[in-house]
């Protein structure tokens, strides 16, 4: 599928669909990046569905605790929990997963909403460009480390847990250059200071969203058809967002004007996160490996569907598993035990 600018504008002016709801009594929901923006608005919706546990996974203690209190004031839900996780720090991700495993209990919904919009190179303590590590290494690391808990939940409670990854329509226009995708190490190239010139970083955010789509499709392809897990990618649309809060100068002015003309309210965008997490309770398989936009399954970009895109997707998956296996050896064991070779 190719998304024209006309179709994009039409989507931004389309009629909002109502938020999908279900009964989450007894279930556990985790939302990454939950203290603000889309993540926080999604937690407000989940809170109205009476989850047994609603975990706000945030980087900052004070901002996360303030979000818990705002959530209670807005919805009356008093069981929200704050868990700290810094996706720009692999050690923090491992600690988050360790604590979840140690605490025991179930995990029914994991919403991976965390992302960074960056136009200049900044390295994490782990040596990766920050936005790439957050969106395309740490988000997958969380999903893979928590996968055994979700599978155990599926077996013990006869349910179908879901992993929801937030992406964007920007993936339709994201460039993955031929020399990069045909090189020996796609992620290492993209995450290197040498590659992250100012010009290349101008397209970094769309590229991370393309890699989000690749991850969802690659993981789904490696889940046996009988595995009771649904993983999907959701596009919240162009929304008012604090993701762009660091813009300055002309960029900030242009973004402000564009928001006034086109942007959805953040709450409306969050409905897509909720859709991916709870829609089609009677037929969850409808959403397996799918891309959701405007409360419906939509087709991904032509590049993703092309032989070149499929090849890049598999290369990136293999490289990602190699990288994350060094970060945490459990990743290799989980992939070997719970996933299969793609058809």
TrEMBL record:
Protein name (record): NAD(P)-binding protein
InterPro entries documented for this protein: NAD(P)-bd_dom_sf, SDR_fam
Lineage of the species this protein comes from: Eukaryota, Fungi, Dikarya, Basidiomycota, Agaricomycotina
PANTHER family with a match to the protein in the record: PHOSPHATIDYLINOSITOL-GLYCAN BIOSYNTHESIS CLASS F PROTEIN (PTHR43157:SF31), PHOSPHATIDYLINOSITOL-GLYCAN BIOSYNTHESIS CLASS F PROTEIN-RELATED (PTHR43157)
SUPFAM superfamilies with a match to the protein in the record: NAD(P)-binding Rossmann-fold domains
Organism: Mycena belliarum
One Gene Ontology MF term: oxidoreductase activity
Keywords, comma-separated and alphabetical: Oxidoreductase
Keyword check for Transferase: no
Keyword Transcription regulation part of the UniProt annotation: no
């Amino acid at each position: 599928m190719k998304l024209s600018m006309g179709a994009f504008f039409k989507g931004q002016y389309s009629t909002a669909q109502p938020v999908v709801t279900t009964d989450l009594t007894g279930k556990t929901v985790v939302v990454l990046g939950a203290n603000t923006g889309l993540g926080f608005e999604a937690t407000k919706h989940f809170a109205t569905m009476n989850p047994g546990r609603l975990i706000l996974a945030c980087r900052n203690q004070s901002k996360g605790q303030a979000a818990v209190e705002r959530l209670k004031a807005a919805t009356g839900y008093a069981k929200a929990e704050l868990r700290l996780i810094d996706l720009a720090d692999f050690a923090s991700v491992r600690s988050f997963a360790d604590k979840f495993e140690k605490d025991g209990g179930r995990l029914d919904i994991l919403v991976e909403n965390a992302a960074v919009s960056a136009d200049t190179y900044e390295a994490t303590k782990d040596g990766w460009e920050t936005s790439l590590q957050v969106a395309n290494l740490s988000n997958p690391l969380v999903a893979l480390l928590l996968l055994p808990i979700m599978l155990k939940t599926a077996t013990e409670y006869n349910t179908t847990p879901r992993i929801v990854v937030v992406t964007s329509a920007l993936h339709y226009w994201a460039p993955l250059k031929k020399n990069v995708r045909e090189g020996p190490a796609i992620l290492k190239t993209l995450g290197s200071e040498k590659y992250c010139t100012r010009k290349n970083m101008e397209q970094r955010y769309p590229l991370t969203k393309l890699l989000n789509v690749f991850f969802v499709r690659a993981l789904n392809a490696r889940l046996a058809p009988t595995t009771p897990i649904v993983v999907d990618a959701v596009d919240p649309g162009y929304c008012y967002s604090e993701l762009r809060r660091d813009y300055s100068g002309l960029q900030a002015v242009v973004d402000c004007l564009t928001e006034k003309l086109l942007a959805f309210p953040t709450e409306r965008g969050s409905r897509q996160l909720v859709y991916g997490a709870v829609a089609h309770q009677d037929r969850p398989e409808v959403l397996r490996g799918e891309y959701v936009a405007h409360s419906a399954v939509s087709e991904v970009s032509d590049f993703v569907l092309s032989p070149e895109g499929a090849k890049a997707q598999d290369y990136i998956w293999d490289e990602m598993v190699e990288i994350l296996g060094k970060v945490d050896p459990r990743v290799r064991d989980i992939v070997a035990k719970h996933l299969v070779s793609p058809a």
